[in-house]
Design brief:
five-stranded mixed sheet; single chain; five-stranded antiparallel sheet
């Protein structure tokens, strides 16, 4: 008796609420509108709709989809296939185009059923009410939530057209397996765009949202097929399809073709994520805040705020346009396997188009997995003799305008006295007397490099490196041993490749992977707009070209040589063969290659084969 009375009172309250809602609009017509009444209680702007973001290669193909918990490919109303609209309206809300957000007869019918069964089974939710749950409310089952639904639904119907409501609804409906919206569902379950689905395939997808876990096609396909048949019947019942279409849909065999997230080129896309954070930090003032931070606590707070901002940008849906050359990236990865197979030696490389000043390929290490430690830009190693053109020869030529035929002493030398003396020597402790600048670099003699740095002046020579903004060059590195690679931390492969790109025309601007970031509707959001800095004059560039050509044509880099309009480069080997390098350029590209063990160990066993030179050559020759 008490239960019956409770249900009776609930029905009266609910009907009374709806009645009063309507009557209020009449009574308040002269003083305020129902819109104003509801707007005081409902904020339609208070929702967040996550959308997928995409990383695009240079040719505009999608190489990576970015989403966390919600896989959603948002599409506009005009792009929604009519069969999807028909299927959902036929099964979820056949009076959708008639009601104002809620269906009073349906509500009364649902309350009657719930009263008989003494529990809430029927919700009588319109498509508009379902949209309210998807955007604003929870999916808890209660009459309090139902009242809130009607408030929100009424306001949505006042502010949005039916087409706008359908667009939002069909982009937010849940299809299980983290899939939201009809486009993501079509591509996930069938590997097709929604426009390419048959009526039967549309019906099968329409079956899922009624109870996503119960009708999950990956686990309960029999149940999904049963409800699919019901969906097809409802579409026929409401005139959405004819008898011929019904028969064809019911006889069609449906095969799922589950398609995972698009995510290619992990080496490159990992760096793109890193660079996106740098780009947003630069454009929105976080970089300056980080530099001005006065405590570790403040720094951590700024960095966390930056990460949240980047996530918000990505969650909103963007296209990240990059300079990735897919064929060159593939060749780069393959080249390391070609020459380091059957070893556990690691390696990394970067490739820059120095005409466009773009990073077209980068590797993070053999067997790299996305977001692993990235050796291409995170690993700092001693540069060996690859530093000589940047720190020694180019600054010396820039300061003195000396001809390449001028000579320098290649015998042993000592600086300082006693235990503090610094006494560099050449490989094998050999002495060569006076040699030309060309021969000194071509054969990578050490003592001439130290003498030239001393003549230029350490401070003067290092001032040229300032343009390259090397991350880990410190004041402790301002010493003569730096002439032959003696640095406290060293350089990443990307850093030193970027620096070598300045030998193309004398100007430096850090090569970037990201060309621009746009919204999904094409609005420009972010792009780099740095200006190139002149580092070397034209005469110095010409002389360095000759030096690097000599090194690759007749010197230590001979195995990297191949006929080209221009080619030049410099090898580098650190003490005890811990690191092997080759960095150089052609008329179009600059590339740097490093190989070594993560935990420093000798590479003497492979040094004679010079795999770093062969890898560089393959990368540069790739079409």
């Amino acid at each position: 008796m008490k239960v019956g009375t409770g249900w009776f009172m609930t029905i009266l309250m609910f009907i009374g609420f709806v009645f009063l809602l309507k009557e209020t609009s009449i009574e308040l017509a002269q003083t305020t509108s129902i819109d104003s009444f509801i707007q005081e209680r409902v904020d339609l702007n208070d929702y967040s709709l996550k959308r997928n973001s995409y990383i695009l290669a240079e040719d505009e193909t999608v190489i990576s989809e970015i989403f966390k918990d919600e896989n959603r490919k948002y599409i506009q109303y005009e792009d929604i296939p009519p069969h999807f609209i028909d299927a959902f309206i036929s099964t979820e809300d056949h009076r959708f185009f008639e009601h104002q957000g809620y269906d009073l007869p349906g509500i009364v019918r649902a309350l009657s059923i719930n009263m008989k069964r003494n529990r809430i089974e029927e919700g009588a939710s319109t498509i508009t009410q379902q949209l309210v749950r998807n955007l604003y409310l929870t999916h808890d089952v209660s009459y309090e939530r139902k009242f809130s639904e009607i408030l929100y639904a009424t306001e949505i119907e006042n502010q949005f057209s039916k087409e706008e409501i359908l667009e939002l609804y069909l982009n937010t409906v849940f299809f299980h397996n983290r899939v939201y919206g009809i486009e993501a569902a079509s591509q996930y379950y069938f590997n097709k765009e929604s426009n390419d689905l048959s009526i039967a395939e549309v019906a099968l997808l329409t079956a899922v949202p009624n109870n996503p876990s119960y009708y999950n096609p990956l686990e309960h396909i029999e149940r999904t097929h049963l409800r699919k048949e019901w969906v097809i019947d409802k579409m026929f019942e409401h005139g959405a399809i004819n008898q011929e279409q019904l028969d064809a849909a019911k006889s069609e065999e449906i095969t799922l073709e589950v398609s995972g997230k698009t995510d290619y080129f992990p080496d490159y896309t990992t760096f793109v994520h890193h660079e996106l954070e740098q780009l947003i930090a630069e454009k929105e003032g976080y970089t300056q805040k980080i530099h001005l931070a006065t405590s570790e606590e403040e720094l951590l707070h700024i960095q966390q705020s930056l990460k949240e901002r980047v996530q918000a940008v990505v969650d909103n849906g963007v296209y990240i346009h990059t300079a990735l050359d897919q064929s060159k990236q593939n060749q780069m990865i393959q080249s390391f396997e070609n020459h380091l197979q059957h070893t556990d030696i690691q390696g990394a490389a970067s490739l820059i188009n120095h005409h466009t000043n773009e990073l077209v390929a980068i590797s993070g290490g053999r067997g790299f997995k996305k977001f692993d430690f990235h050796r291409g830009y995170q690993s700092y190693r001693q540069p060996g003799s690859t530093i000589k053109p940047l720190l020694v020869f180019a600054p010396y030529l820039e300061e003195t305008q000396a001809p390449l035929s001028s000579t320098v002493n290649a015998n042993n030398v000592c600086y300082g006295q006693g235990s503090q003396a610094y006494c560099p020597n050449n490989y094998g402790n050999s002495e060569y007397g006076y040699v030309s600048l060309t021969r000194a670099l071509q054969q990578s003699y050490n003592t001439p490099a130290v003498r030239l740095l001393d003549q230029t002046g350490i401070q003067t020579a290092f001032s040229y490196l300032d343009s390259f903004q090397f991350e880990k060059v410190t004041e402790e590195d301002y010493r003569l041993p730096a002439a032959i690679g003696g640095f406290q931390y060293g350089f990443s492969p990307l850093e030193i490749t970027r620096a070598y790109s300045s030998f193309h025309d004398g100007f430096y601007q850090p090569a970037r992977a990201i060309q621009k970031v746009t919204s999904l509707d094409g609005k420009l959001l972010y792009e780099w707009n740095e200006s190139p800095v002149k580092v070397w004059n034209e005469e110095t560039v010409g002389k360095v070209h000759e030096l690097l050509y000599a090194a690759i044509a007749n010197g230590t880099g001979r195995r990297a040589y191949f006929p080209s309009e221009y080619i030049g480069g410099k090898s580098g080997t650190t003490n005890e063969y811990h690191d092997l390098w080759f960095v150089g350029l052609t008329e179009n590209y600059t590339a740097g290659v490093w190989i070594g063990y993560d935990k420093k160990a000798s590479l003497a066993a492979v040094n004679d084969r010079q795999p770093q030179l062969l890898i560089w050559k393959e990368i540069m020759q790739a079409d």
